Amino acid sequence: MTDIRLNRRALLSLGAGVAAAPLLGACGGVSTSGADGGKGSVTLMSNQFSPVEEKQRFEKILQQRITAEKVAFNQVETGVFASTLQTQVDAGKVQVSMVGALHGDLAQHAERLIDLDDVLAGLGDRGFAKELTDLAKLGGTTTKYIPWMQAGYVLAVNKKALQWLPSGADVQKLTYDQLLAWTTAGAKANGGKPIFGIPAGVKGLYHRFFQGFLLPSFTGGQITTFRSAEAVTAWEYMKQLWAQTARGSTNYDNLQEPLQRGEVLIGFDHVARLVGAPADKPDDWIMVPAPSGPKGLGYMLVLAGIGIPKGAPETDKAKDVLKALTTPEVQLDVLRQNAFFPVTNAPIPTDLPGAVALAAAAIKAQREAPNAILSLPPVGLGARDGEVGQIFKNCFKEICLDGKPVRQVLDAQATELNKILDELRIPCWQPDPAGENCRAA
């Protein structure tokens, strides 16, 4: 696979373009009817928008914005997405017209997706960054998906917590040491009740914190540095941070509800799972970039794209829907409703809902930080992404909950990680250097 790198300069402009592209004449509204839209409809299968509310809001966007075709939005879990796409294409019995997923989820299916150079060529006014369209080639020479949307993770902060911010600390430019000092002081002043939370529930995305933020910030990598001395330091730090974290975090699938209830005052999560907290009283909240560590500010870019499987029904209609999904109107609707940011030059409006505006500012500041270290979610793992994610969760459980020695845990989990990676034989993804076979050293 070609070693494609996203540079910060290209990302600075994402979501902050100049002029809106012309509205496609076909744009207006789409009929959706779940997994099966009937004969002649376009079925979009995606592992995105899994929360019911997100799915419903996206279906409403389709209904309001695209009228030319009848579209059925079929949301499935990541494992089902991978197996369904593989099984249908390999059997030559494809029932879905389009597939939408994260870059890493699409990467292992490059040979199962049709070339979309013709579609991309007609979208010159969308202003896609070259690095994104290069990524969309999935290591080859032709476009395999069209960028769809992007998102990220930040810290949501109730302004009540600012009174305990360490002297001299800039909440917009925190270090991990300052975050620890802040949460420690906050818990002490709060009668011993922690003010910090993470989404460590069964469906929580806390493993992304370790993969894309903590470890890159302390080690400069994610996989190749998995059991390095710097990784030991990172996990020793995590033990200290966990001591100042709300124990209810192990029940939180997302942070916006405990933040709304006041159970925690500072929380890390995916922006789409944070924006509900400040929705009613945005003036009571701020959202800020993740902290920086010894190596820099590690952050994870969540990039999603849409492709068309080989042998898919209604291909021409699917291409029309794909074009409509990249119009400024749809891109900005997705931003307003589900807090996923444009991948086009659609200008960010000044009248965003308060919570979304807070998230937009934090994402921008995080991306533009001079010490930013860009990280991607795992690429090419397919149905085994959950297994790799579980390894990071195992590290958390054994180190932070069970109190096992960090070095012992990392060595044991690295062995399990390498078993998976040695079977897959895939290159590393950012921030790790590309190699023939990505593995923990």
Explain this structure to me?
- The chain is an alpha/beta fold and 441 residues long.
- Helices cover 39% and strands 12% of the residues.
- It has a 5-stranded mixed beta sheet, with helices on both faces. Strands 6-7-5-8 form a 4-stranded mixed beta sheet.
- Helix 2 (52-65) links the parallel strand 1 (42-46) and strand 2.
- The longest helix has 19 residues, at 406-424.
Short key terms for the protein model shown above:
single chain, 441 residues, 5-stranded mixed beta sheet, 12% strand
Number of strands: 11
How far do the termini sit from each other? 20 Å
Give the overall silhouette: globular
CATH architecture of the largest domain: 3-Layer(aba) Sandwich
CATH superfamily of the largest domain: Periplasmic binding protein-like II
CATH class wording of the largest domain? Alpha Beta
Mean pLDDT: 89
Briefly note the structural class of the backbone: alpha/beta
Number of helices: 15
Strand content: 5-15%
Instruction: Kindly report the CATH topology of the largest domain.
Output: D-Maltodextrin-Binding Protein, domain 2
- Major β-sheet, in short? 5 strands, mixed
Number of structural units classed as domains: 2
Unreliable spans: 1-34
Q: Please state the CA-atom Rg, rounded to the nearest Å.
A: 21 Å
The helix content, as a percent range, equals 25-40%
Major sheet: arrangement of strands: 2-1-3-10-4
Order of helices and strands: HEHEHEHHHEEHEHHHEEEEHHHEHH
